[in-house]
Amino acid sequence: MSSAPAAPAPYTVAVRALCEFTAKAGDLDLRFTPAPTALEGIAGHALVTGRRAADYEAEVRLQGAHGALQVRGRADGFDAARQRLEEIKTHRGDLARQPAAQRALHWAQLKIYGALLCAERGLPALTLALVYFDIASQRETVFEERHEAAALQGFFAQQCQRFLAWAAQEQAHRAARDAALAALAFPHPAFRPGQRELAEAVYRAAARGRPLLAQAPTGIGKTVGTLFPLLKACPGKRIDKLFYLAAKTPGRQLALDALARIAPPGQPLRVLELTAREKSCEHPDKACHGESCPLARGFYDRLPAARSAAVAAGPLARATLREVALAHQVCPYYLGQELARWADVVVGDYNYWFDGSAMLYALALQNEWRVGVLVDEAHNLVDRGRAMYSAGMQRGTVRALAREAPAALRRPLERLDRQWRALLAEDERPYSTREAPPAAWATALQNAATALGDYLANAAPGASHPLDGALQSFWFEALQLLRLVQSFGPHSMVDVARLPAGRGTGRNDAELHIRNLIPAEFLAPRLAAAWSSTLFSATLAPPDFYRNTLGLPGDAPFVDIASPYAAEQLRVRVADGISTRFADRQASAAPIAALMAQQYLAQPGNYLAFFSSYDYLDLVANAFAQAHPAIPHWRQTRRMDEAERQAFLGRFAPGGAGIGFAVLGGSFGEGIDLPGDRLIGAFVATLGLPQVNPVNEEMRRRMQEAFGAGYDYAYLYPGLRKVVQAAGRVIRSREDRGVIVLIDARFTRRAVRALLPAWWPLTHTAA
């Protein structure tokens, strides 16, 4: 006797995602609203709902089904007494300029919510109200329609029906994907030493839904060793998406290459690479709307075909995504944004998850995805996190705009400049810090930003002003600062620096910065939102530094993978007779040059020499060139472009010989691979300690207050991390042999040696 086949599991979709799939049409058009910020949107919603009666229900969670489709979402508010369901949208500018397609999308969302509410509460009819709240005037514009429950149910069924074929395809894809991942085999004949231990730690973290810090040496295959186990965990733990986040382009390419080995083309795994807008734009001279850009014109009409072609195209690295987009005459950047909803693995920059307006983070919350996050070279996330939540402004920019701006903007910009003048009069020192953002200055900035937003939103189509580009850039700058004003706390600082002649735009020019010092408060919610986050790097010691600064739980596991390399592969010499302290640098140039030449002549080959700054690099390189002109050498220079960086690396040819001079912590200090005799040694002429300046001293003070380890957190740990990263360029595999020369007596200190890899065999040498 056979049993009836099991009913298919329902496919769940959010109301917003459903409507964006079925109800968007026409052009891509970013003109209406320079949109309110997220904080302004939240505040606007709160203000509107706060005006309602006491029994008003806000954030009404709703769900319903149509066949195998489960639809869920949250309606903004319901007034039971008036039987009125509201959808609240914040905006700037004249609603008459709102594209009809955008209004139609909002009505579609509201009708779906109305259908779900009527079904859930047995309502025969309902008033639907689109409430547009103007951030500037704080006025509500309301559009109402009365709908019978049957009509709303019909609309709901119609939208679901349009989505059902895609949902069935997605269900089939998910089933095939999970079956393939469950059967996934390791892509190499065997694990490398240390790689299995790393993979097992990542799998355990994914199985338990925990974060993980993983320190693993270069060369053991960290990319495959993290991707493979997380992919294997996806079926059993119902992980919807895997996000692989890298600090730099080479890290993204390593991930794409690893994924191609783990799941070759033909496997049911959708891989998408996200690229920055400026690198994806086909028409940088055009605006993002149909009257300007041909790839925005009719974008949503052509999107369904482009989307279907893209998900069938196999892995979507940048070049493939562009090819599909142009074949369907849609924008590659915005096609990539759309496809992030349907990809299994997304490879992109840190900012897609950790930034204040991070797209992947927002989509994960909106769609209630269960995601696994891999953070490559995670030691970079401390500084990148600080940069994401820092911003600055020059007074000279305000003065220049106030002189030339349209008449409607001059008064608010002039008021802002007066607050700048008052701010500088309060403290005449060249550099000063504040306990909090200056209140009067922040108010003037808010007023100027509001005026700018209104001006940009209400500009007549086709009209322009010579300063429009500068005004928009300044508006974005102001909004970022205002977001940081609203979120300001002990994790950040405010400083004001007067600019010397030549750097600013005239007398009394100055810069104000809100600088994030401890990014933990901002990054912690993003790490917590992931089912599992694995942060991995060759340098994540000591782990408490990263737990504390990144916002990981105090009990987040840390795994330290032992090096597979033997001590005999590497000689590590400490030249403790030379001081590289700032006061001793002039005197150190000749001894360092002699030491480098001695090592080179004893063992000719390719070497890298690292220095703490370009000035120090040039000082020693000049001394070296003068004393040893027969030894080839080449230098990293300021602001190298991609071709120049490739030419620098190209000098490290197999069988070659010479010394490349580079800056510690720069583009050649990590993320480059020069195996075999392309690199046989490195000189590190510094501890890499950050410069002692007012900002870093404030960092030291804050770190002392927060963690009781001010000097270590602000100077020692960041410096030694750069040293270990740079020296790690030498040994890349079990076949490599090389030498590292650490130049400074401080490398012999116990606290310093504790931060160097335990397997390094340190010896002393006379300088």
UniProtKB/TrEMBL annotation:
Q: Does the keyword Ligase apply?
A: no
- Superkingdom per UniProt: Bacteria
Keywords noted in UniProt? 4Fe-4S, ATP-binding, DNA damage, DNA repair, DNA-binding, Helicase, Hydrolase, Iron, Iron-sulfur, Isomerase, Metal-binding, Nucleotide-binding
Q: Outline the extent of the Helicase ATP-binding domain.
A: 181-435
Q: Does the keyword Protease apply?
A: no
Protein family according to the UniProt entry: Belongs to the helicase family. DinG subfamily.
According to UniProt, the name of this protein is: Helicase ATP-binding domain-containing protein
State the species of origin.
Pseudorhodoferax aquiterrae
